[in-house]
Specification:
Blueprint: H1 10-14, E1 26-30, H2 31-36, H3 41-57, E2 61-62, H4 65-71, H5 77-89, E3 93-94, E4 106-114, E5 117-120, E6 134-138, H6 140-143, E7 148-150, E8 158-160, H7 170-181, H8 190-194, H9 209-213, H10 220-225, H11 251-269, E9 289-292, E10 297-300, H12 311-315, H13 324-332, H14 359-366, H15 371-376, H16 382-394, H17 401-415, H18 420-424, H19 432-443, H20 451-462, H21 502-505, H22 510-516, E11 520-521, E12 526-527, H23 531-537, H24 540-543, H25 546-557
């Protein structure tokens, strides 16, 4: 059968299949591109992405490395720049206009270098490819698996995906292009096999949209594309809570609603003396209220309301008429049929706390503590309370002694904490015999027996106290030799610990004062204010002198 071609069949016989007319439904890429960049499948994927955008706008595509990294998060900016350099060096991408300051570089795909030069893509001359051998790539591999990108001159591109995360990468797209072109390579195809795009290095057709959606998590855009969700706003989910919603009304209307609801409940549950329910009687006594609704004084009674006056009916108007004619009719009606309800005014009970009159309460009230806290600690041990108060008064940095005492008492009750003042008084004797023995030991005399002890004690009390004996020679390493005037003791030095007398504190060296700031003494050892000072006091230079210093403090304090 003769050929119907105008050339008699010669032109048809001369053009092979790979020189067929380009179809705009596919992405056409040169075979030589796949052969020269077979070692760089990422460059092939970027070339296909630029061709896809060029077929949409038919203009240069402004694209940056950051845009491609946003489109394919698995890539790094260094790999993307390397792929761009490979495409530009092989003349597979052209930059028609020089980049302006602050704008992205715009690229145009080319068919490669030919005898007349680099031939860029042009839609006016059937893509202007000449005699270049090409292969076609289904564009849905980019739109469906990776998403659609709309680059911009400034700012980030607009990306829409059918899947929440890309199912392929641009490198996988480049490997698929090598399989389509039949170019041998050594790249991994495990991802393509898992997605159903190849089998034993043989490229397969792109699956349908539903099959691709089943391979990942569908996004909102994908659900709307498949018409599973409306294009507009999504329907609000139903509230699983069956309770009615809260709503707010005006104060006057709220009073009417509460009164009506309470009356309905009382009338439904109560039975009259004659054995009939309240709803069966002809006239029902309802308290009338004077409300200024429409500018006139109106009376809203039971007669104007429907038989079933519920919350829903009141919210929708409840059948209550507020017209002027109703107001005039209500004003003309006699009021003898309306019974006034018998109300009894019950004063609100006052919460009066009966606080016991105890020494603890008196001491707490003297500190200006609030009545609620006074009642809380009214039954606490008196000795513990006095110890806590004494501890609070000995501290110089406390502004609110009452607050401090309440805080310490709560720590004692909740955690069993021991106040600091109690620690200072551990070694102090509490009975008379121990005090007498300590006194005679200090004086250097024997304790008399039987009744002579009481006579001797009375004599000691009446007599003058013995002179204070302090071994100043032993304390010489701690004392300042320039301070010898004892008249300075009348002055109160700042930052002095309470267990050190003022006359001794003034004679100490400045370095020793610094170590003893905020210190405490329990009669046998000194506890410094922090760990560093405690370590300094543990040095041999101070450890040998501190016992004599403690004895001198006790002697001068007595």
């Amino acid at each position: 059968m003769p050929s119907t071609h105008p050339s008699g069949g010669a032109e048809v016989m001369r053009n092979p299949s790979w020189l067929a007319a380009p179809d705009r439904s596919y992405l056409w890429f040169p075979t030589k591109l796949a052969e020269t960049l077979a070692h760089a499948p990422l460059a092939l994927g970027i070339y296909a992405l630029i061709v896809r955008r060029w077929l949409v706008n038919h203009t240069s595509v402004p694209l940056s490395a950051l845009d491609i990294q946003t489109y394919d998060p698995s890539l790094t900016r260094a790999k993307i720049r390397t792929a761009f350099d490979q495409l530009i060096a092989g003349h597979w991408l052209a930059i028609p206009n020089p980049p302006q300051h602050g704008c992205k570089i715009a690229y145009v795909p080319t068919w490669g270098r030919q005898r007349e030069g680099v031939r860029q893509w042009d839609t006016t001359q059937s893509f202007n490819r000449g005699r270049v051998a090409t292969h076609r790539l289904d564009r849905t591999i980019l739109d469906t698996y990776l998403g659609r990108i709309e680059p911009r001159q400034h700012g980030q591109p607009l990306i829409t995906r059918y899947l929440t995360t890309p199912a392929l990468t641009l490198t996988d797209v480049g490997v698929y292009m090598l399989l389509v072109a039949g170019v041998p390579h050594r790249h991994a195809t495990a991802t393509l096999q898992r997605r159903g795009l190849c089998q034993q290095n043989v490229p397969l057709a792109i699956p349908t949209m539903m099959e691709i959606m089943a391979q990942g998590t569908m996004s909102l855009h994908g659900a709307q594309h498949l018409q599973l969700l409306p294009r507009g706003g999504i329907m609000r989910p139903s509230d699983p809570d069956s309770r009615p919603n809260l709503f707010f009304v005006e104060p006057d209307l709220a009073t009417i609603m509460v009164t009506t609801m309470a009356t309905n409940l009382a009338m439904t549950d109560s039975v009259s003396e004659d054995g009939f329910e309240a709803l069966g009687s002809e006239k029902t006594a309802v308290a009338c209220e004077q409300k200024n609704v429409t500018g006139r004084s109106c009376k809203i009674g039971r007669r104007n309301q429907p038989p079933e006056n519920t919350l829903h009916s009141i919210q929708n108007g409840g059948g209550v008429s507020f017209s002027d004619s109703t107001n005039e009719r209500l004003e003309r009606e006699p009021e003898q049929d309306v019974l006034e309800p018998k109300t009894r005014i019950i004063p609100a009970a006052r919460n009066i706390m009966s606080t016991p009159d105890t020494p603890q309460v008196a001491l707490l009230r003297s500190l200006a503590i609030r009545p609620k806290q006074v009642l809380e600690f009214a039954a606490i041990d008196l000795a513990t309370l006095e110890t806590v108060v004494a501890d609070a008064r000995q501290r110089s940095g406390i502004r609110d002694i009452g607050g401090w005492v309440v805080s310490i008492l709560r720590d004692i009750q909740n955690h069993g904490w021991e106040p600091a003042a109690a620690k200072w008084q551990i070694d102090q004797p509490c009975d008379f015999e121990a005090s007498l023995s300590r006194w005679y030991a200090f004086v250097g005399q024997d304790v008399p027996s039987d009744g002579a002890a009481e006579d001797a004690a009375e004599a000691c009390i009446e007599s003058a106290p013995p002179p204070v004996v302090v071994d100043w020679a032993t304390l010489e390493p701690l004392l300042d030799p320039t301070v010898t005037d004892t008249a300075l003791a009348a002055q109160e030095p700042p930052h002095r610990p309470l267990w050190i007398p003022a006359v001794l504190w003034l004679r100490l060296r400045a370095s020793v004062r610094m170590l003893l700031l905020a210190s405490r003494c329990d009669g046998r050892s000194i506890t410094a204010g922090d760990a560093w000072r405690q370590a300094q006091l543990a040095l041999p230079a101070y450890r040998t002198v501190l016992p004599a210093f403690i004895h001198a403090c006790e002697a001068l304090r007595e």
